[in-house]
Structures are given as C-alpha cells and as structure tokens.
Known about the structure:
The protein has helices spanning 17-50, 52-59, 63-77, 81-93, 103-121, 174-180, 249-269, 291-325, 336-342, 344-350, 352-365, 375-378, 411-419, 429-448, 504-510, and strands at residues 6-14, 138-140, 149-151, 154-157, 160-164, 183-193, 196-206, 221-226, 230-234, 239-243, 328-332, 369-373, 399-400, 409-410, 422-423, 426-427, 453-454, 457-458, 463-464, 467-468. By secondary structure, the protein is an alpha+beta fold. It has a domain at 6-206. The strands form six sheets. Strands 2-6-7-1-5-4-3 form a seven-stranded antiparallel β-sheet, with helices on both faces. Strands 10-9-8-11-12 form a five-stranded mixed β-sheet, with helices on both faces. It has a two-stranded antiparallel sheet with strand order 13-14. The protein is globular, with a radius of gyration of 27 Å. The chain starts with 5 loop residues before the first strand and ends with a helix.
Amino acid sequence: MSNSSSFILELPLQTTPHDAKILEVRLDAGRQLYNACLGEALRRLDLMRESKAWEEARTCRDKGKRRKLFHSIQERYGFSDYNIQAFAIETKNACWIGSHLDTHVCQKTGTRAFSAAQQYAYGRRGRPRFKGKGRFRSLEGKSNAAGIRYRDGYIQWRGLKLKVMLDCKDKHGVEAHGLNCETKHVRLVRKLIHSKLRWYAQLIQKGRPKQKSKNRIGYDTVGLDIGPSTIAAVGGDDAFLTPFCAELKPIKRKLRLLQQAMDRSRRATNQKNYNSDGTVKKGPKKWNLSKRYKQLRTTLAEAQRRLVQRRRSLHGELANRVLTMGYHINAERLSYEGFQKVWGKSVSFRAPGMFVEKLRRKAESAGGAVYEFSISVTRLSQVCHGCDRIEKKPLSCRWHKCSCGIGPVQRDLYTAFLSRHVKGNSLDTRQAKGAWPGAEPLLRRAVSRLEQTAKGKPRPCVQGRGKLQFASFGLSRRQSGSHVKDESVCVEAADVVGGDDVLSESRRETHA
Length: 512
C-alpha cells in the first residue's frame, strides 16, 4: 500500500485547552525521541566513516564490489532504518516517553531521524541539526489501524478524541472526495497562526486528489523556459510569458520593514554588543530583547507564514495554467543551487525549484511527466532553428532575430518554443520549422498581453512601484506609454531576471 499513489487531505481539529496541553506534551516527547534517534544515527555514521573498511570500500573501483562493501559496513554498525526503529523502541521503553507515545509513532519518528542522517551520508544535504524546543511540529503513525487513527469524523489517539472540522459548503467537493478514499495513516501538525497554536490532521489518503472542473488537463506537449524570476510557456494553441509570484511584492516589502524595525530595537537595547562602526562585537554576548522586539518577531513570523502560503497558492495556480496547455512538459535541466549563488534573494523569494517539483507531481498525477534536457548540449538560447546557427547573446539582449528571417521574437518565448521540440538531448529542427508559422502569432500575442488589463485593473504580473516595468522582458516604456515595436531587436536594458528593481540605465530610458 505504501507504494500506491496517495494525496494529503488537511483538516483543522477542534481542541480544548486540555487536549492542546496533552498534545504539546506528546509533541515534546516526540522531539526528544527524534533527537535521541538522530544522535544515535549520526554516531553510527561517524564510526562507519572512521573504520578501515569504509576507506577500503570508498577506494574500490569495482561498482558492484563497492556496493556490497558499503552494505556490509552498514549492517555491521547497524546503520539502517530497522535498527534505528529498534533503538527508538528501546529508548521509549526505558524512559517517560513510553507513557505518552505508542509504538507506531516511535517507529515513524526513528525512520524520520534515519532518513535525515541517510541523506547526509549520501551527500544530498548538510549535517542534520537537533530540534530545539518549539521546532518540532508534527507526529505521524504508520497505519490507520492503530496509534493515531481517523474514525467517523474524529481523530483517536491514546484516550484523545478530537473532532475534525469539515467545510459545510465544500464548493468543489474536494473534502467529500478525500474522505471517500481509504486512509493510509494520519499525521498531526501544529501551526502558529495569528499568534495562536492550532492543530491540524493530515490524512494521507489512497488514490488521486480530485481534479477541479475549472482545471482541465491538456494533452499536448508544452515547452518551458524557467528563470530565477520568470517563466515562459508555449503549447500548441497558447503561450504566455510572466514573472514568478509578482503578487508577493507587498509582503516582501513588509518583511523588509519589520526586519529593519527589529534591528533598530535590538541595537537600542544592546548598545554594548556593537562596535563604533555598527558591527557586532566578537565573543560571547548577552542579548536583551525588549517587549517591542518580541512583538515584532511574532508579527514577522506571521508575515513569513503568509508569504509561504501565498507562494504555494500561486505556484499551484501557475502549474494548473501550464497543465491546461499540456501534460507532457519539456524544460531545461537547471541548477537551482547555482541560481542561489547569483540571484539568492530572488530565488529565496520566488522558489522556482519548488514550483518545478509541484509541476512534476501534478503532471505525473495527471498521467504525464516533466522531461528535463541538458542546457550545455541543446543551447536553445543561442540557436536559431531556421539556419541552425549558434550565436552567443548577452543577457541584456532579450530579442532574437536572425538573417534567415526568424524574428524578431522575445527570447524567453522563443526558447520555450524550441524546448517543445526537443527529443532526448537534441533539437528536432525539422519539426520546429513545420510548427513555426503557427507558433509565431502565439508568441507575438503573448508579448502583447503583457500590456493588456484584466477586469479594468493592471495585471499584477507586470506591476512594479506603481508603473508597468517591461525591461526584464526586453520591452521598455516611452513617454507616450506605448512599448517599443517588434522591430527593436535588442533592448539594452538591465537584466532584472534575478532582481526586483530595474537598474539606473533602464530607469533613464523609461522616464526619458
């Protein structure tokens, strides 16, 4: 059952102060058990790496033999999910945790700790940290037969019976569909919303989530060109070019103002901890936090929570928009870690990698897939399908025009169009040439829609500081308000793909 498709149905719980107190104690017991299991897993991993057998396995060139050597070392030192689960049960039975947590929850907590250590052992993440008080937010069981389980609108767990709050309207029938599916296991999650602790039950249901009628699925192939803050998509009968999550700019500004206020408050109450130039003194220090600082910290946490929820919603809307064009999606294989090094703030704010993962899950749920190909082999941003010529362009050049007659066309949209015709790691130029006459009007229409209004209001995707900004797409604004014509092949504007503001050169051009 664990390998079958599943989805999460999250429902709020109705808890009394007595129920909340019991849940807090059990959550803290789970936190301490997690720390104990994580410490044991890391200890065993360190012992493995210090052994001579590990060095022998690491230097072995035969892949099959090396795999067997690593497996035997893990068995010798007990570095496995089963052994960490057994350690969790022993720890639970030897202390007060056993009176608060059941066997299934303890085994799942051990698996969670081992997974973190295993990812670190494989080099897929950094060394995991122990959970401080208040940093552990969820507990889950292994099945719906024992431990934490859902029964007839209630969550039952060791004497607790918590009522699930259902949506009476359920406009799209999402909850009704989810509750009709079989429950695999239940997860309890604590969230801080509006400075209040609230509890939710996440039911892991067997099957697929309900597809809303408004989110139809297309059956065509879609080409994507994804940047740190923009996305271009081209399908068979539609195309669009838009930035990522531009609606989050007001929240981002609020976060910046709150952080500045917190810094001023902390400096005012801890003047001895700063040098004359404003830098923090080295060595151990004691920080005095004022009442106002704590209030600002709570407000900042709520603003960050809203930012995450709103971004998740915008990612879902954008993924659904792409899937209406088609569920076979071709995109370049990008290094989002490299994006973070160059455009750290933009990537942290918009999270393009998270969007790709959500798009992949939705496409696979619909029966399609996201196919990623190599950038260094295809070089779509430099190639012209009309004459197969490859020409390097600076990032400031946002339009493609070739002497063979292709263009002018917006560069991101053109790359997305070429991505649609990539097979394996090569561009099918013959197929691209046949589709170009029908795709060219779509790309022009996508650019023109950037200036249009929706329901009498400016589109939020092109708003910025009260005026429409087009520099990141290769469009500039003149005094008359009209954009440059398509014959303007290369607009030397600042590349704001990785930032929020247009640089001084584009500002002078905008307000000229």
